[in-house]
Each structure stands twice: as structure tokens, then as C-alpha cells.
Amino acid sequence: MKAIVYKKFGDSDVLQLVEQPIPTLKADQVLVRVKAFSINPMDWKIRKGEMTLMSGSAFPKHTGTDFSGTVEATGSSVNGLKKGDKVFGVVKNMMKEGASAEYVAVTSSLVWKKPENISYPQAASIPVVGTAAVTALEKMGDITSQKILIIGASGGFGMFLLQLLKQRGAKVTAVTSSQGAEYAKKWGAHSVIDYTKTNVLSNNALYDTVIDLSGKIGYDKAKQIMKAKALYLNPTPKPIEIPMSLLKNLLRSKKHRVILSNPSTKYTDVLLGAVKNGLLIEVNKVFQFDQFREAYQYAEHGGYSGKVVIQMT
Ligand SMILES: NC(=O)c1ccc[n+]([C@@H]2O[C@H](COP(=O)([O-])OP(=O)(O)OC[C@H]3O[C@@H](n4cnc5c(N)ncnc54)[C@H](OP(=O)(O)O)[C@@H]3O)[C@@H](O)[C@H]2O)c1
To answer: Considering the entire predicted model, what is its pTM?
Structure first.
């Protein structure tokens, strides 16, 4: 089968298409013929060598976490899935078994049936950012009377988070570029701040929860726009921040909490419920498999809303 790998850190030109054997199936696994996989910022952060503490420096590395496709075969202990089922899911370790391949063998607990009313590219867009959005929602606690600020709201994560908050009646301000404003409003933002025109830090508003999906602000700056007792959610923590934020929170009223997306059936059920209730999955652009370098360049460059997906040809 064909798979995308890289043998050194770098830009998208280090990505190569290679031939490798179709993975062999363990008893608890499902072999999926991939139809689409989505691109996440984590793909290029690891590929560029920005997360070596987590990724290590061994090569070759695979890439791609969430996928959709059809079941090709099931292991002997798998129940509830059969050949031909339309599914979506996540691989456990993208560097070893990336979703950017013609086939993936995945533990059956990380594969779910695809609803008929969403496409393969939409389904492949759900798990990583969708789970992160539900996790953020859990950390926010009671959102009824909160003023919430989402910085970088028009990407994949923001798309899910805004709509989950809207379905629960929350009041959200979104920070986006000019092109992203239209999407943030459509997804449920009450007001939008265009970061190319207004600095959110000098806008004289205070929030109960601030989440920075752009990675451009950070806790220390965000403190100035947080109420006395407020929450900052960090989806891009440095490893040291995970234990440190717990310790420091003991002494501060403006809390800092990290978000780590860990897809599971519990989160997928919430997300599929939200899709049933009208959550839109906006796929900005679908590239064909042989356009993979172009696809990663496009996704990494930014300036679009929603998700970017690669489809098998
Ligand atoms: N911890 C976890 O488990 C987890 C899971 C998923 C994602 N993440 C992280 O969460 C972040 C968001 O993920 P994503 O998939 O939504 O990424 P994304 O699709 O790239 O979205 C990021 C958004 O930030 C916007 N942006 C760029 N510069 C900005 C600025 N100065 N001010 C405000 N907005 C700005 C971009 O809009 P324009 O391009 O229009 O400027 C883009 O829409 C990424 O860092 C990702 O790695 C973490």
C-alpha cells in the first residue's frame, strides 16, 4: 500500500510517498481502507521538529491521526463492526501508524460508524479537534452566565467549540481574521473581533474564560483580559506546563488549565449528538492523495476556515 512518511524534520517537501505492506491485524483491531484523512496543526509541528520531547527523533515517522473509510477486515475478538461498514476513527500513535496511508489497522474502540448524513471528509474532521472541543467544554464548567473568549475561533477546533457552546446557550466572543468572521458568526459567536484591526488585549472587556487557539497570546498576556476569578485554557502546553500549572493554580485565582485531546467513544457520542442537532462540519478544501505536499502547505499557511482534508484517489 502507499503511505506518507518522512525521514528528517522539515517543511512539507520532506514528505515522501512510499510502498509498504498492508498492516497485519491483531485480534482487537479493525483494518480500514482509508477514504479520507484530515490535517491537524500537530502534523506539521511534529514534522518540523517543534515537539521532539514528545516525538523523539527516530525516523521514519508517519503522519495523520483522524481518518474515515470502510472496514476491510476485523480481528477475531472484534464485535459490532463488519467488512464494508462505513467508519471513522483515530490511530493511537500517528508517528508509527499514520492515517495518511491506504490502510490503517486500529483498535476497534477507536473506530466508530460514520453517520450517513456526513461525508467521508467531514467524518475524518471530527475526532481530534472535536474531542479537544468537548474537553474544553468540560473544563469550562457551568457556562450559563459566563463571558467566553475564543482566540483563533475559525479553525477546526474553534468550529466545534463555538457550535457546542452555541447549542448550550453560551455567550461567546470570537477573535478571527477578516475572512474567519463570517464563519465564527455562522457557528454561533455573539460578537467577533477582527485581529487584523483590533488588539483584543486593549479592548476593555473582561472574560470568565479565555481559550487561545491561535497560540499567539498565552496566559501571561491573557491575564489582563480575565476577570479576577477566571479560567485560561491552553491547548498547546509545553510539557513542563502540565504539572506546573496544577501547582501554580494553588496560589492564583486566574487559573491555567491545559487541554489534551484523547478521543474515545464517550467524546464521539457527544460529538455525534451535536451533529444530529445541527453542528456543521465545514471542510474548506479537499485535496487528492497525490497532492499531499500542496495540501500540507495550504493547511499550514492558514487563512481558511474549518478543516483541510486529503482524500484517497
Ligand atoms: N491539546 C489538544 O489536544 C489539541 C487538539 C487539537 C488542536 N490543538 C491545538 O489547538 C490549536 C488550534 O487547532 P486548530 O486545528 O483549530 O488549528 P487551525 O485550524 O490552524 O486554527 C487556528 C486559527 O487561529 C487563527 N489565527 C492565526 N493567527 C491568529 C491571531 N493572531 N489571532 C487570532 N487568531 C489567529 C487562524 O486564522 P487565520 O488563518 O484566518 O489567521 C486559524 O483559524 C492548534 O495549536 C492545535 O495544535 C490542540
So the answer is: 0.98
